[in-house]
Write a structure and sequence with these properties.
This protein is of the alpha+beta class. The chain has a single domain, classed as 60s Ribosomal Protein L30, Chain: A, CATH 3.30.1330. About 25% of the residues lie in helices and about 35% in strands. The protein has 7 helices and 18 strands. Strands 1-2-5-3-4-11 form a 6-stranded mixed beta sheet. The chain has a 6-stranded mixed beta sheet with strand order 6-7-8-12-9-10, covered by helices on one side. Strand 7 and strand 8 form a beta hairpin. Helix 1 runs parallel beside helix 2 and helix 4 packs across helix 5. It starts with a strand and ends in a 5-residue tail after the last strand. The relative contact order is 0.14.
Length: about 375
């Protein structure tokens, strides 16, 4: 069975945004699966004359070297030298390669490569009236990672991202969405939260007199292929300025800051071709911040999906506007239960096996939607 390629598209007079979700077919070696996926993505981008803005590759650490080798070979001259976020977790029930998510754009202007200390780390796209920036795999030097205190490590990672934003006269108030990749998340999530809370307080995103302008976010137990203890991706809207809507409380859940996590439940912002809604990593947590259905995977899956759909309803965003989704399952047993349900939703899924931010949480979802997306 060949690779599964899901394409979602939004177009304006200035640009078209294309979201591709690619997952392996049921048969074939790792190399064959990777060739089918990356050749399919290459063909879509080439036929559209589109360019990658951000890319995530999901699999196991042992498989990632081969996956990225095939990617480089398949992409050929469409490869701009900016590495995707190569995100590793435990092996799922089908294969060590879980899939790929690509956010691409077609416009008169091409994305420009961004570098920090000589390393390519992101892209910026400028179209009339809009400027959009992405960063991928931001982390501190590996030698620092092994010795640093967890809170200091998180602080340094955030400062590194901030230094890139400052090159363009921006800061974290321009960031609608972050992804925090936290190896061994259960051992130091509290330390991470304390570091992020202090960083955002010092920058005026939260605290007395602020507007609580926290990015939507995912903090999850995946890690980059190099084994980094923490790394991050983000998107930033440089133009139009002050155009991001941060929703600390939306749907059925209250503000996560009330129990110590500095992120908004969702954000809404201008992107090159329209409006994007980012739904943060969402789990089976009630309005008071307590985990629901402890020990009941099916109950947590149903609660989580309903929590995500409640956010989408509050944002006037139908299921059909969802362009990318990742489901995080704690174990393969949870994945088997989820696989029996996911076909009920018209969403393009990638599924990963990893720890979630609380020991009792078994399932989490994040979603991205674009208003008026067409499959």
């Amino acid at each position: 069975m060949p690779a599964n390629l899901d394409i979602r598209r939004v177009e304006s007079s200035e640009a078209a945004e294309i979201y591709i979700t690619a997952t392996p077919g049921e048969n074939g070696s790792l190399q064959v699966q990777a060739q089918e996926i990356f050749s399919g993505i290459r063909d879509i981008l080439s036929s559209e004359k589109a360019h990658i803005l951000q890319e995530k590759v999901f699999g196991t650490q042992s498989a990632m070297e081969e996956i990225l080798r095939v990617r480089s070979e398949a992409y050929g001259d469409i490869n701009d030298g900016i590495a995707p976020s190569a995100l590793c977790g435990n092996e799922g029930i089908s294969a060590p390669f879980s899939g790929v998510q690509v956010h691409a754009v077609k416009s008169a202007a091409k994305p420009e490569a961004l570098a920090l200390d000589g390393d390519l780390c992101g892209r910026i796209l400028r179209v009339p009236g809009r400027a959009y920036l992405t960063l991928s795999g931001i982390r501190v030097d590996q030698s620092t990672q092994t010795a640093a205190d967890p809170a200091e490590l998180a602080k340094a990672m955030l400062e590194k991202s901030e230094s890139i934003l400052k090159q363009f006269g921006a800061d974290f108030l321009s960031v609608p969405r972050t992804w925090m990749w936290l190896n061994d998340i259960l051992s130091w999530y509290d330390d991470f939260n304390q570091a992020r809370n202090k960083f955002f307080t010092d920058r005026g995103l939260i605290g007395q007199g602020s507007r609580q302008s926290m990015p939507a976010s995912t903090g999850i137990g995946l890690y980059l292929a190099d084994g980094s203890r923490c790394a991050m991706d983000l998107t930033a809207v440089l133009e139009p300025v002050d155009s991001i809507q941060f929703l600390g409380a939306v749907g059925k859940q209250q503000c996560a800051l009330e129990y110590g996590s500095a992120f908004s439940r969702a954000s809404r912002n201008i992107t090159p071709a329209g409006e994007t809604v980012f739904v943060s990593g969402t789990a089976a947590i009630d309005a008071g911040g307590a985990t629901t259905n402890i020990g009941d995977a099916l109950g947590q899956i149903n609660d989580t999906i309903e929590n995500v759909r409640a956010v989408l309803r509050d944002m006037n965003t139908p299921d059909e506007d969802v362009v990318q989704v990742v489901a995080y399952c704690k174990t393969t047993d949870v994945q088997k239960i989820f696989d029996g349900l996911k076909g009920n939703f018209p969403w393009p899924w990638v599924t990963m096996i990893c720890d979630i931010c609380r020991p009792e949480l078994l399932f989490e979802i994040e979603a991205t939607a674009m208003i008026g997306a067409n499959k």
